[in-house]
Amino acid sequence: MLWQSMKKQGLFITFEGIDGCGKSTQVRKAACFLEEKKIPILVTREPGGTPIAEKIRDIILSPDHDSMTNRCELLLYLASRAQHVQEKMRPALEKGVTVLCDRFQEATFAYQGFGRGFLLSTVNQLNQFSTNGLKPSRTYIFDISIECAFSRMKKMVKVPDRIEKSSKELYQKILEGYLKLASNEPSRIKIIDGEESIGSIYNKICDDLSVLFA
Ligand code: ADP
């Protein structure tokens, strides 16, 4: 019992960047790397990650919801996160499980803050409420040009969702936002060149993970 309560918290690691930057590919590869090392992990994503949060995801991303207001969008992302954190992420971390999440708070700062133009202080306050203070201990931001991201997305068979239909101008603001966030917190947030090969990015992430888990 005492041992259980003293058990070390899992690490919380997030993968961020604009659509098509390659983060989902690297989440899968990082998960295999940690599994091989017998580190208990939970792989999840945002928006979504639990049945309720996935329903909110469907509402946010549906291409039919063109009339969604920016305020509604921001609050839905945070509603989804509140459910995800409390139901799934915090319990896992408390059990010592490492959580790998495809997007989290940096996406909200980049898309809704820098992209949609909400004050970062407002986004931060709402995010704090939704997460009850949970923050990633490591974040990888994949830096990739808008042209490269669009060309990758064009090659994918999937129908673009409401956010993926955004203009290049909006994506440019989001990308710049992500890089600004990284420059504000260089010890927690690592910028990865998303235009390198999948293997070379994987090696860099593995090197960093090896240090984190040493
Ligand atoms: P995201 O989750 O960031 O939207 P994905 O990981 O789904 O991006 O990758 C988008 C597309 O780009 C996929 O077809 C994937 O195979 C490809 N891709 C991912 N990483 C790279 C890379 N480093 N170089 C070239 N193509 C990549």
Backbone CA Rg: 17 Å
Low-confidence stretches: 1-5
Number of strands: 5
Strands side by side in the biggest sheet: 2-3-1-4-5
Helix content: 55-70%
Shape verdict:
globular
| Strand composition percent | 5-15%
Output mean pLDDT. Answer: 95
The structural class is: alpha/beta
Main beta-sheet annotation: 5 strands, parallel
Bound molecules: adenosine-5'-diphosphate
Treating each run of at least 4 consecutive H or I residues as one helix, how many helices?
A: 9
Could you explain the architecture of this structure?
With 214 residues, the chain is α/β, with parallel strands linked by helices. The chain has 9 helices and 5 strands; from the N terminus they run H-E-H-E-H-H-E-H-H-E-H-H-E-H. The chain has helices spanning 2-6, 23-36, 51-61, 70-94, 105-115, 120-131, 146-155, 168-184, 198-212; strands spanning 12-16, 41-45, 98-102, 138-143, 189-193. The chain has a 5-stranded parallel β-sheet, sandwiched between helices. Helix 3 packs antiparallel against helix 4 (70-94). The longest helix has 25 residues, at 70-94. It is globular, with a radius of gyration of 17 Å. The relative contact order is 0.20. It binds adenosine-5'-diphosphate. Adenosine-5'-diphosphate (ADP) binds at residues 17, 19-25, 152, 156, 197-198, 201.
In short:
The protein is 56% helix and 12% strand.
What does the secondary structure layout of this molecule look like, with pairings?
Blueprint: H1 2-6, E1 12-16, H2 23-36, E2 41-45, H3 51-61, H4 70-94, E3 98-102, H5 105-115, H6 120-131, E4 138-143, H7 146-155, H8 168-184, E5 189-193, H9 198-212
Parallel strand pairs: 1-3, 1-4, 2-3, 4-5
Bound molecules: adenosine-5'-diphosphate.
